[in-house]
Structure formats: C-alpha cells, structure tokens
Protein 1
Amino acid sequence: MIQKLISNIQKTNAPVVVGLDPMLSYIPPQVQEKAYEQFGETLEGAAEAIWQFNKEIVDCTWDLIPAVKPQIAMYEQFGIEGLKAYKKTVDYCKEKGLVVIGDVKRGDIGSTSAAYATAHLGKVQVGSKTYSVFDEDFATVNPYLGTDGIQPFLDVCRQEKKGIFILVKTSNPSSGELQDKISEGRPIYELMGEKVRAWGETCMDGDYSCVGAVVGATYPEQGKILRKLMPHTFILVPGYGAQGGKGADLVHFFNPDGLGAIINSSRGIIAAYKQEKYAKFGAEYFGQASRAAVEDMIKDINEARMRI
C-alpha cells in the first residue's frame, strides 16, 4: 500500500493529506438545515450533515491530493449514525482513487489488538464468508503497549497489503511529558523511532516500509533526528496550518529523493471558508475555499521540498 501512496503523491506532486475531521461548528448552516429538514435534529441528521459536508470537500479537492485522513472520533461522537457516515466517507474516497488513512489510534494487546486490526485493515470471518469492515488503507496505531500491540497489525498489513502509521512524536504541546523523557540516555521518541524502524524492516515494499511514523510538524528539530533514524519510514506529519506548522519547518521530514513524508492539514482545509484569507468564498462555496487552501498548502510545501 505504501507504493500506492507514493504513486498518488508523484501523480499529484502533492505530498499532502486532507484531514476529514468534521465538527458541526465547521459545517455551514445551509448544509445542516438541509440535513435536519430530512432527518430532524437527531443523530441521524447530524451524521447526514457530516456526510454531505465531507462529500463536497472531497468533490472539490480529490484531483489535487493523494490521500485523506478521517479522524474516527469526530464520527463516533454521533454514535452508530456517525460511524455510518465514517464508512460512507471511506468508501467514497476510495472510489475517487484516494488513499485513506484511518486516524483511529488503536492500541491494545492480544486478541483485542487483532480485532482492531481486522476491523480497520483486515477481513472478518462470518461462517463461510469474509467481509472487509471499515477497510481503510492505513490505520494509526498507539505503540504504548509494545510489540504485543503492534504485531497483529503487522500480520494483517502483510496479509492484506495495507499499512500503519505509529505514533512517535505527536504534535500536541504536552507530548513531551512522556515522549521527551530520557531513558537509557536518550529521549523516548528516539527509542520509539528505532522500534518503528525495526518493525518496519519486517514489512518492506520497495524502498519504503508499510510501517510509517507519526511525527508532528510542530517539532521540526525532532523530525530531523527521526528522519535520520528511520530512513525507510514514511512519516505522517500532523500539525500543519492551524497548529502552527508551515512549509519552511518541514524540509527535514523529507528524504533526498523528495519522498518519505506526507503532511496533514485538517481544519485549515475543511474549515478554510471561516478564515479571512478565504472569506470571499463564503459559506455557500465552502468546498471551493477548501480547494484554494489545498492549492496554497501544496505550493508552500513544494517550495520547501525544493530546498532539500
């Protein structure tokens, strides 16, 4: 699957991923009102608004981007109806040829970890039949439980030709409370980077592994260190835009071949119409505002890549 991601990046010349993390506060009034007219102010109505919002953004940006990253918590908060909207979003994006990174941050051990891997990347057995459930291309994974929590995902990745991105150095301000602590004379995020590299060596697909890492754009110096520690690891980089990351900070996340990283922006893209820069589009044309924001993001990042 990492080769499909690379192919999409090369085809679009856009190492970016749009985070489909919808909150009702991001969804324009006319989209919400139409959904509520059909389903009422119910969980089903909220899920319909989310689905229509996502669809418009995908329709306006799919030809510019290689991948999307829906954050499952934004859907789970609306219960079963929200999960239906999540699944519709995943399926629609795959129909458009986009790589789907399920931002699910699962992490457990044994049969529980195997069940998570099956739900998001594998196939579940029902009598004589098998079914893909959420069927994302990649899933994000929390490695805090160690190899016991990662191995079931590795097994499914090899079997189904899927991939994972493992949390290494996250973009949030308090990430250093644990990730920067010193153990054996080194910060924990470095030790985790070495574990990701070792896990990845068991799941190679060409020059890159199907086991990637999550490293926040808000920590460029740590990103520089981790890039050297994990030369064959694709890095998913959250924190661009709304969290403060910008193209100039990102040059060290890429390898000399110009690959090796994909940069995520979520509300900076999907709620672009709320920004002064894109206010001319208004709420009515929120999808076009998202398209303009994607175009600006691609330009910013590609200018940074040229400095490698």
Note: The radius of gyration is 19 Å.
Protein 2
Amino acid sequence: MINELIKKIVKMEAPIVVGLDPMENYIPECVKSKAYAEFGETLAGAGEAVWQYNKALIDAVADIVPAVKPQIAMYEQFGIEGLIAYKKTVDYAKEKGLVVIGDVKRGDIGSTSAAYATAHLGKVKVGNNTFAAFNEDFATVNPYLGTDGIKPFVDVCKAEKKGIFVLVKTSNPSSGEFQDRLIDGRPLYEHVADKVCEWGADAMGDAYSYVGAVVGGTYPEMGRVLRKAMPKTFILVPGYGAQGAKGADIAPYFNADGLGAIVNSSRGIIAAYKQEAYANYGDAGFADAARAAALAMKEDLKQAWMK
C-alpha cells in the first residue's frame, strides 16, 4: 500500500492527507438538524450527522488529495453509533479511491497488539469465514511498549501489504516531556527513530518501508534530523495549518526525490467554512470550502516538495 500511496501523491501532485476529525461543533447546523430530525438528538443522530458530514467532505476532495485520516476517538465519543459512522467513512473513502490512514494510536502487549492489528489492518476468522473488520490501509501506532507492541502490526502489514505510522516526535506542545529526554546523550525520539528503521528493514515497498513515522510539522529542525535518520521511512506530518506549521516548515521532511512525507490537515480543511477566508461559502457550502482549503494547501506545499 505504501507504493500505491506514493503513486497517488505523485499523480495528484499533493502530499496531503485530510484528517476527518468530526467534532460536534465542526458539523454545520444544516447537517445536524437533518440528522436529528430523523434520529433525534441521540447517539444515533450524532452518528448520522458525522457520516453525512464525512460523506460530503470525501466527495469534495477525493479527486484532489490521495488520502484521508479519520481519528477514531472523534467517533468513539459517540459509542457504537460513532464506530458505525467510522466504518462507513472508511468504506466510502476506499470506494472513492482514497487511501485510508486509521488514526488509532494503538500499541500494547503482544497478544493485544495482535488483536488491534487484526481489527484495523488484518482479517479475523469467525468459524469458517474470514472478515476484514475496519480494513484501513494504514494505522498509527504507539511504540511505548517496544518491539512487543510493534511486531504484531509489522507481521500483519507484511501479510496484507499495508502499513503503519509509528509515533516518533509528535506535534503537541508537551511532547517534549518524554520525547526530548536525553538517553545516552541523544533525545528519546532519535532512539525511537532507530527502532523504526530496524522494524521496517524487512518490510519494504519499492523505495519506502511499510513502517512509517509520525513527526510533527511544528518542529522542523527535529524533522530535518529525523529525515536523515530514517531515509527509507515515509513520514506522516501533523501540525500543519491550525497548529501553526506552513509549507516552508515542511520542506525538511521530504527526501531529495521530493517524496517521503505526507502532510495532514484536519480542521483547517474540514472546518474551513468557519474561517474568515472561506466565510462566503456559508454553512451549506462547507464541502466546497473544504475543497478550496485543500487546493490552497496544495499550492502552499509546492515550495516544500518535488524540488
């Protein structure tokens, strides 16, 4: 799947993933009111609103970006109804030709990680039948438990030709509390990067590994160091837009081939209609506003990649 993602990035000239993080206050009233009229102000109504919101957003961007990244917590907050919306979102995005990165941040002891990997990337047996449950193309993974927590995901990736993105240096302000701590004279995130290269060495696509990394766009100098440390690792870059990173900040995350990174924007695209720059679209034009914001992001990133 890493090969397919790269092909789509090159074809669309857009190293962009749209984060589908449907907070209730992001969803326009016109979408919520219709869902609530049918299902009431209930968890089912919330799930329907999320699904209809996502469907319109996917329709708006599917021909201009290669991937979407639904953040599962935004769905889990609505319980089973939210997870149903999550699954419908994943399936619909794939129907529209998009690569789906499940932002699930899983990671646990071996047997539990194996179950997580099966749920999101692999197949589960039920009697004599086999099913793909959530069936994302990639998943984000927390490496805190070490190799025990990562190897089950790598095994599934190799079997299914799918991928993971391992948290290395995240974009949130307090990430340094642990990730920047010095161990043997080097920050912890560099040690994690070494393990990412090790884990990915025997799980290679054509040029990049199935095992990618998450490196926040809010720390470009650290990104530069980590890019050199992980030359065959594809980097998922959060932090663009609403969190402060711009196109010029993202340049260090790309390799000399102009590839090697995909940049996430969530509310900067999906809630663009709330921004002054796109206010003329109005609530009902939220999907068109999202498309316009994605195109603007594409232009901004041109200075950072394919140089």
Note: The CA atoms of residues 201 and 209 lie 7 Å apart.
